[in-house]
Amino acid sequence: MKLSLILAALATSASSLKTVTFKDATGNNVSYVEKPTFDQKKVDAYVLQTEQIVNSTHMDKCGKCLTAIALGKQAALNGDVQLIPAVLTKLCKMYKFSKTCDTDYGAETTGYDTDGTHAAQTLTLIDDPYGTDGQYLCYYKVNQACPLPELPKFDLKALGWWGDKPDNVTVPKSENKTFNVAHLSDLHIDLRYEMGAEANCTEGGKMCCTPDQFNKGARAAGLQEVVVPAQKYGMYTCDVPPPMIDLTLQTVGQFAKEKEFEFAIFTGDMVSHDVASQTNLANTALSEEAIYHAFKKYMGDVPVFMTYGNHDTFPYGQLAQHKSGYGGYFVWNDQLSAQLWKDYGWIDAEAEQQAIHTYGSFATTTKRGLRVISLDSNLWYKKNFYNFWNTSTDPDPSGLFRFLSDELLECEKTGQRAWLMAHIPPGGNMDNSLAHSTEIIRQIVSRFSNTIAGLFFGHVHEDQFNVWYAGNGSTNTVDNALQIAFLGPSVTPLTYYNPAWRYYEVDTKTFEVMNSHTYYAKLNESFAFDFEHPVEKTIGNFSYLGYPQITNISSEDVNGTAPVYHYEYNAREAYDPDHEWPANAPLNATFWHKAVDYIVNRNETRDLFLKYEYRQSPYVPKCADDNCLANVYCFLSSGTVPQVVECQKNHKGFKKQIYIKRDGTYGDEPEHHHH
């Protein structure tokens, strides 16, 4: 489907409508066409009622939050859905809970990224504002105003999803032969990347290397040039310029011939982390098309199985279930992508139709008989407003989880092995996925553990993994290690990573991973300035680090030289330091359970893990105190959010969830920009 047709179908006629201008995070003017006007008196009345709730002395913060949601629900029932974005925007400015209220809470438009309409539409759907719907909204969306509610209980077997787990499932016998599969993730092409732009920006959401970003201190001091100029192949504070996309996929394409990759998986995020005012429908679709085209150009006839990331939708992170009545906002993505996937020969007509009607999710069988099931993880992402309705009464509002269990049930009946791939890992920490949704995933993975041969995700940008255990996460032993999830490293260096990708050696019969090989590019060695020897400079009251230009550089390399992808490590060698693991045994959950023990308890293995996590960038952190070690343990050992909760509650060293910062210290918020 042509992009122009999509935009024409979604664009609203601008005739006789008012054009509104506001300043975005960078200080630039943003103009958009306002939808038909509404009753400002009603908006003011709803704002006043909300103020009264906030100022009440008779409710705690949870009660206030739930009551405000109930007011929003009543407004929606009164037919005032179109007013809610204006109410939210005014409240945002009044209470200063964002610097970008217009883009955060404004009405729906294709011109920039805003969530106001989707928040309002969610209010029409929620079952009980004072029940788990409201409590989850207050926990995840309003700074944990309410505690995390008790997990809803669903018996999927009783609901008819499956019967008893067979006792005699026969796993195919290995013939000790392997084939190779590539895994790439988080390409994040930045179509607005500009060589020479500011890479050390401080304003505008800190999405550097774009024309409108700047360093506030430098500008105030009158510095005429940028502090650090963006280089041709990327920077540690920016997303990926098109030349680095080409270089990466050209490299993988060359390896595809040498290593005879039978297929590749891409676990999501094609679109950049740009500021909301610069994130629009056209840029989202163009970025996706550019990535699909590049994969086909360089991978040739190698099938590439895709999945969406949280950035690969518009608005960012939003996706409505079909039965919500709002799914029409998002179907453009499935129509565009599924047709291209089929045209490029990656999926057949049946999988194309699945993808169109199942949120871009599909199942396909490889030439060796492996069933690859690709899922859209936005349906368990906490930033998606549409995941917060009927949380206690419906385990599967989208139908995606039943699609998955039905596929696995069919595989079980026929003795077929399956891989599951998606973007956002269902566990690891509390940042990304929803407790009630990932509990359903846990039940599915547990029920079909004899059928699933591997789980594959991306999103975290780090080279990581999760061990999935049977049970609720309170007891993690070698005997109940159930599955392993491979989390692919990102190609984007954002923030402070070297670009990387990997390939797997896969058993030809069991389809288990026998080894994992990672390649990385030393981004700092591609710079046209001397990154290793910064010079402190001062102008007025502003001090900064400058980098001397490399002398004797050719004119074509004045903005950076092409980096090379080097072999970094293989998992079997790195995480079996005592060489105890049998050579013909797969890298299964038992192997990775032992690896976690090595990482947490051996300094040498932990240092190696951290080095590989950041792909040996100049910003590899340290981790030695009890709280950091507990954070690492809980991340690596928790497949779902409820298991994270159990781990953090029961681990004696855990104090709070932390994030490793650029300088190696710890902070309460992640530094890399997740929009």
UniProtKB/TrEMBL annotation:
The keyword Cytoplasm appears for this protein: no
Residue intervals of the Calcineurin-like phosphoesterase domain: 180-462
UniProt signal peptide: 1-16
Keyword Glycoprotein: yes
Gene3D superfamilies referenced in this protein's UniProt entry, alphabetically: 3.60.21.10
Alphabetic keyword roster: Glycoprotein, Hydrolase, Signal
GO molecular function: phosphoric diester hydrolase activity
InterPro entries with a match to the protein in the record: ASMase/PPN1_MPP, Calcineurin-like_PHP, Metallo-depent_PP-like
PANTHER family in UniProt: ACL091CP, SPHINGOMYELIN PHOSPHODIESTERASE
Identification of the protein by name: Calcineurin-like phosphoesterase domain-containing protein
